[in-house]
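Give me structure tokens for this 511-residue protein.
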Amino acid sequence: MQALFDAVNAICGKIQIVSDWFWDFPTNLDWYASIPILGNFSLAIILLLGSGLFFTFRLRFVQVRYFRHGLTLLKKSKAKTGISSLTAFLLSTAMRVGPGNILGVTGAISIGGPGALFWMWISAFFGMAVAFVEATLSQIFKEKKDDEYVGGMPYYGRRILKGMAWVGVALSVLYIVYAFLCFPAQGFNTISAVGAIASLITGSEIATNSALYWIAFAILIVFTAVVSFGGIKKVTKVTDLMVPVMAVIYVLTVIVLVVVNITRLPWFFGTVFSQAFQPEAVFGGAFGVALVQGIKRGLMSNEAGQGTITMPAAAADTKHPCDQGCVQALGVFLDTIVICTLTGFVVVMGQMWMTGDTEAWFALGKLDKFLTSAGAMAGGAGFFSNLVTFLISVCFGLFAFTCLLGFMSFTEICAKRISDNKVFINVIRAVCLVVISFGVITNISGMDLSALWNLSDFANILMVYCNLPLLYLGFRYVLKAWKHFEAKDGTPFTSEVVGIDVPAWDEKAKQ
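Here you go.
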């Protein structure tokens, strides 16, 4: 078994080299890095920020002007076919609000300093416009199957590229590979949370190879299989319950910590804004590091531009494609501006890098860094500190589990885009469970597979490079839908409006 883990670690290490090259290019070239200011920006950062800026200005700050409209839609959402806008929002939030909201933010700050949080905010603000575009595009080209709507990147990719069947298949395979790269880490994180919670309750460290871990593993796999195999509607019943619960627990826990340490709040904002451009030496002191960490981890968290949250956007039953675009933009706001900022409060206001234990804090893993910072804000020991650690561990476990459900559900949608053959679908389901199990068994065996987290970096940038070109190619359809949406002339959205066949909308207009 150890030989297998060593081999996986070695493969992950090679993939990380490729991932870093994609993320850093062309800043890893001396001639480019020597260019003032521009030399700090990699192609990936330019594409992400540039796309957000372009869509924001082209759509006249849609994320600001229609923010309230998105909230109104969430309150009044209903569905005759498929799922409601609110349900789609919660399902996408189950994917967005994951362990990356804790691990990614903590890692970004510990490498780039508190200023990385500022760049997360910037990426999220402009990323809301990107999320609007990809969600609207998903709605335009969604398809009706039985009593559900399906769609997303594989669907709009095929339609944009003149209906070439291989495009839909290739993009579906790409998403499945993306999910497979992310599954092990989420399985690992879910069981880690179970172990942490059990240790807090019993007051003693529980061995990872104990019966508790194996029982938790069995329950996790069975429950994931039962829920995910039930289709998107069964998954949404679970996420409709879990997402609000985990969000409320996490938000209230951190707010209490902030209130207890309210005197540090002005210092927090001053530090974040000042170190966005000039980080302290302990974080490397480089502006480019803070910027890259903020953008990279912001993307990993809110997923704007990746195309990975387009499936739930397409599944919603809305009056107009742009309605769901407004709703999905709110998802980026909730994920990064709210949840990631709360994590930033804990890591920065904990001030652990400013104490005598600085080196020890930097040596900890991402989750341990966060829990140590939370413990410092809670007084360092005692009932309150243990309660905070318990609640955060519960949220971390729910974050990871809802991500698993989302990945399973969307992987199946993509698999059905390739083939509706039941044997093929069942094989994909089985492989998903095997890959998840690998991550869990890694934890139980006590093996260090921290490189699994790095696979997500590679998967993220791979999706970005494939999805962003599609958004630009399909933007002409988004613009037509946008003009019709803003006109508010009472006419239904149909093929005539957008200039391309959209059967699902033509059928809806006749109802």
